[in-house]
TrEMBL record:
InterPro entries according to UniProt: CLCA_N, CLCR
Membrane in keyword set: no
Protein name in the entry: Calcium-activated chloride channel N-terminal domain-containing protein
Organism of origin: Pan troglodytes (Chimpanzee)
Keyword field contains Signal: yes
Signal peptide: 1-20
Domain spans labelled Calcium-activated chloride channel N-terminal: 73-264
Lineage top rank: taxon: Eukaryota
Sorted UniProt keywords: Signal
Any Pfam family the entry gives: CLCA
Length: 297
C-alpha cells in the first residue's frame, strides 16, 4: 500500500525539495520510508541521533499494541536537509486537512529530544505515536485548552477529555513571579463552570486505557478511544472535525486497515535506521555558439 505523502518528522519546518519524492509504504504491517529531517544548523550530537532511534523504537512497540497488533515502524531514514527552523519546543503536527486525511509533518526540536520531559509529555515514543495519529490518520486532540470544562447532559461539570473514565481533581494556582500558591476555586454563577485558570489534573494512578490522543503520558493509557469509550459531549477538536466519531473509528476506516489483519507474531523486529545527508544536484548546460549547429548536413 503506497501513499503519495511526504512524511517528515522535522527538527525544523519547511519541506526541502530533496524530500519531495519520498513515499511512506505499509507492507506486511510495517511502515517503511519514514524520514526524519535534521536542519544542518543543528549541532552534530551523537546523543540526539541515539535518542531519535530510541524514540522510534519505543514508538513502534507502543503503536503495535495501540493498533491491536496491526502496525509498527519497520525503518526510518535520518537525513540532514536544508530546512528552516522554528523555535518552539512543544511537539506538534501541522494539520490542514479534514478528518481522516493526511497531515503535513511532525515537528520536534533538539531540546525536546535531548531533555528529560517525562513529567510533561511522557516517554518520547508515546509522544511520537500521539503525533503519528495526527499526521497519518488526521485525528484531532481530545483536550481543549480554550474550553477545559463543559456542562454534561447530566448537568455535571466535566473536564474536556476522552475517556471520562480518567479521574482527577481541579486546581487553581495563583502565581506572582516564580511563586505560586493553590487556592479554592469558585464557579461562575452564569455558566456554572469553574473560573478561568482552573485546571484539571489527572491522577497519576489510573485504570483507564484511553486515550492516546488525550494524554499519552499517563502510564495506563495504551489505546485510542473507541465507540464504546468515546466522549461525544466533550467540546474538543476531534468531535468538531470528525462529527463526534471516536479516534479508533477514524483510524480503522483508513486505507491502512481495510484489508490488513492483526499480526500473530508478537516478537516485533526492531526498526532499522539509515543516516543520510542531502546534496545539491549540479546541472551543467553546454551551449554551442560556433554556428556549426546551423550547418547544412
Amino acid at each position: 500500500m503506497v501513499f503519495s505523502l511526504k512524511v517528515i518528522l522535522f527538527l525544523s519546518l519547511l519541506l526541502s525539495p530533496v524530500l519531495k519524492s519520498l513515499l511512506v509504504t505499509l507492507n506486511n504491517n510495517g511502515y517503511d520510508g519514514i524520514v526524519i529531517a535534521i536542519n544542518p544548523s543543528v549541532p552534530e550530537d551523537e546523543k540526539l541521533i541515539q535518542n531519535i532511534k530510541e524514540m522510534v523504537t519505543e514508538a513502534s512497540t507502543y503503536l503495535f499494541h495501540a493498533t491491536k497488533q496491526r502496525a509498527y515502524f519497520r525503518n526510518a531514514d535520518v537525513i540532514v536537509a536544508d530546512l528552516y527552523l522554528k523555535y518552539r519546543d512543544d511537539p506538534y503536527t501541522l494539520q490542514y486537512g479534514q478528518c481522516g486525511d493526511k497531515g503535513q509533518y511532525i515537528h520536534f526540536t533538539p531540546n525536546f529530544l535531548l531533555t528529560n520531559n517525562l513529567a510533561t509529555y511522557g516517554p518520547r515514543g508515546r509522544v511520537f505515536v500521539h503525533e503519528w495519529a495526527h499526521l497519518w490518520w488526521e485525528v484531532f486532540d481530545e483536550y481543549n485548552v480554550d474550553r477545559p470544562f463543559y456542562i454534561s447532559r447530566r448537568n455535571t461539570t466535566e473536564a474536556t477529555r476522552c475517556s471520562t473514565r480518567i479521574t482527577g481533581y481541579m486546581v487553581l494556582n495563583e502565581c506572582k513571579g516564580a511563586s505560586c500558591i493553590a487556592r479554592p476555586f469558585r464557579r461562575d454563577s452564569k455558566t456554572g463552570l469553574y473560573e478561568a485558570k482552573c485546571t484539571f489534573i489527572p491522577k497519576r494512578s489510573q485504570t483507564a486505557k484511553e486515550s492516546i490522543v488525550f494524554m499519552q503520558n499517563l502510564d495506563s493509557v495504551t489505546e485510542f478511544c473507541t465507540e464504546k469509550t468515546h466522549n461525544k459531549e466533550a467540546p474538543n477538536l476531534q468531535n468538531k472535525m470528525c462529527d463526534h466519531r471516536s479516534t479508533w473509528d477514524v483510524i480503522m476506516s483508513s486505507e491502512d486497515f481495510q484489508h490488513l489483519s492483526p499480526m500473530t507474531e508478537i516478537n516485533l523486529p526492531r526498526p532499522t535506521f539509515s543516516l543520510l545527508k542531502s546534496k545539491q544536484r549540479v546541472v551543467c548546460l553546454v551551449l554551442d555558439k560556433s554556428g556549426s549547429m546551423n550547418a547544412v548536413r
